[in-house]
Amino acid sequence: MVTLITGYPGILGRELTKVFPSSIHPSHKELEVGNEDEVFKLFEKNKIDTIIHAAALTGIRPCEDNKDVAWKSNVKGTENLVNACLKYNPNTYFVYVSTACVFDGHRGMYTENDIPYPENFYALTKLLGEFAVKKLPNTLIIRTNFVAKEPWRYPKAFSDRFGTYLYGEDVAKGIKEVVDNHLQGIVHIVGDKKMSMFELAKRTSPNVAPKTIQEYSGPKLTMDMSLDTVRWKRYRIS
Question: Which residue, among 161, 149, 54, has the nearest Cα to 98 in the 3D structure?
Fold first, then answer.
């Protein structure tokens, strides 16, 4: 009985290893999910029965500027893991960490029943990953929106972009709970309060300044990333 966590030591991957302490969690240097040979060799050596797949290229601008890299990591990487499961253990419990950005962000508070419509290439790759895991019979797709619980990396934060944000540690605990309940299908792990990115940033960086989308130039952004759930519970941001 082996649980594989991908995406270590990223924000979520790091927190997941704390709530799944007996997992194997190779770093990107040890396992590049976009490399089929590396993925299959890992499955040959380990009897994996649960995967929590959190590895991805997540930046909207990096994904837009490096579509081939984003595709290899987010789409091909997911397909490689799915194909390895099909070969070595088709009943593997595959937990795929997706994103609130699969929705267009025009209204917010999207539930598991709403239809995705990506606004940018990053979101498109994550949605295609959702479709890839559905080849397996025992899957859970988790959509969420989280940041690291650390000082804001930028001098400003959007006052007109919104989410039901959580910190990585909150999402990891939520994932542990839904995995323990062996839920399948799609589940949104969400905060119980909708807030702007600026409100979120001020929690760890009181001196951060507000900005609006008018000050931004770049790939199209998902403006309202807020999620709701009809399948699970809401969490309070820690």
Answer: 54
